[in-house]
Amino acid sequence: MQVDWFPLWLSLRVAALSTLVSLLLGLWIAWLLAGRPFRGRAALDAAVTLPLVLPPTVLGYYLLVLLGRESPLGQLYESIFGQPLVFTWQAAVVAAIVHSAPLLILASRAAFESIDHSYERAARTLGASEWRIFWRVTLPLARRSILAVAALAFARALGDFGVTIMIAGNIPGRTQTVAVAIYDAVEAGNGGLARLLVVVVSFAALAVITVANRIGAPLSRRQAG
Amino acid sequence: MIQARIRKSYPRTRDSAGFSLDVDLKTSGGISVLFGPSGAGKTLTLDCIAGFVQPDEGRILLDDLLLYDGAAGVQLKPQVRRCGYVFQNYALFPHMTLRENLAFAAHHLPRLERHRRVNEMLERFALADLAGRHPAELSGGQKQRGSIARALITDPRLLLLDEPARGLDAPLRRQLYETLQQVREDFHTPILLVTHDLEECVNLGDEMFIYRDGGIVQSGPPSQVVEQPGSVEIARLLDVYNLLPIEILALDPQRDASRYRFAGTDLTGPYFRGLLLGARVLLCVRPGQLTALPRDGRPAANQVPLRLLSTLERPGGMRLEFESEVFVDVPREDWEARRHSKEWVVGFPSRGVRVL
After folding, report:
1. Dist. CA A192–CA A183, nearest whole Å
2. What's the rounded mean pLDDT across residues A46-59?
3. For residue B29, what pLDDT band results from cuts at 50, 70 and 90?
4. Which residues from B are below 8 Å from A35, CB to CB?
């Protein structure tokens, strides 16, 4: 059987890239949410939790409206990069971010909130700026939890189907991620390929979760002790 | 010098009874001690001064620097308040070595100067050999010195300490007192410290402020406060007095004398000003002012026969608990000589006692 491994490589690439962007964006939002109350915090909180409970197709629809070729954002993207965003592999990255960032924000917020406040307070009395406190105190203290969270976000990004198919589509060799490829294989009656991809993805996800638990576990043990 | 007028209320909620702090605090430099039971608002006062908590109203002035003014809408960030803070858990960053912890605080200095200053502080607090260790590898006393050194490296105008002696044993406590004396003498940094240990007030404090239920009930030099508690309530908080119910029988201002009855026995005391005959008041007498003797026939003058209930070993002697809530401190040798006696009398001094 001739197996096309492109969907798997695409998925890994998309998941890696989206995890990176989710970390940059998500850690910042999580830090805001974990910190002092500010106007609009409840709204932001709701906005990042909503994608967790909405059907992926609904999210995909919103993104189509938001980023489609007719939308201002879509046109802006097109004028900068010279090509539309939707139905490209970059759109799959956006889909993966929307799918995995909320989980990452939720978990890293909990990680930030579990840090003893006296460290950050002490840093403040020592004259450190909030920016410096974040990088030198908060982030290192939450390091393990956040690595574990990043691994989970990666696994979740790997598994997105609904949002991806709505905005990136199912173009073999271009936007067909592994989750979409499995659906495609089943639809086409190609049971062998579907089984192979299912097994590969399952083991990849299991590996990532094992790593995440390894990283996260010593911290939770320390906190319990 | 700190001048603080702070009001801060937390409303009653389902899980908490609500709390309201209303204090007017003015320190005169040196070491000032906030003393009182847990939950009286001592730490909240520190947090308001450090800028972690914004008061509802009032004004906080550190020397000539306005830290907070409710009416003028001034609320400086903790970063610019120049208050060093030593936390109960020391809050040394666990992922940094001791040297890195100090260097973090000296960030504002140029590199060479920073290095020199960190080394100087490590030397001063006898931490030079431990500079490469992480906080987890340090003892409690070492962590505490590290935390104080880290706070002082920023050259604060005021050093705040939250229960610094909590959880330290007696030798470490003495070490802490020495360290703080050193801070006062070498750095001339005024210190504001929170404690619920009276020994600490007396050993360290140039002045003390007694907190109760979110307010300051008495202040002054510790020895004076301890000698002259302003009310029964304060005397109870200080917990150094027997507070014994007596009835006044006779008052003689000419001979500076009085007769009063305690536990069915008539005793002689000094003249108590401002009391009427028959008044029922509390006699305020320290356990060390009383004597405990084996009963030998009829009790002599100013002796009350009392039953011994229990004994407790304390540094430097024994504390004996008699019936009617009378506590007597006796030196260990005296106790050893008299311990087998069955019946006891407690001797009351005719001078040096007060009523509340």
Report:
1. 13
2. 91
3. confident
4. none
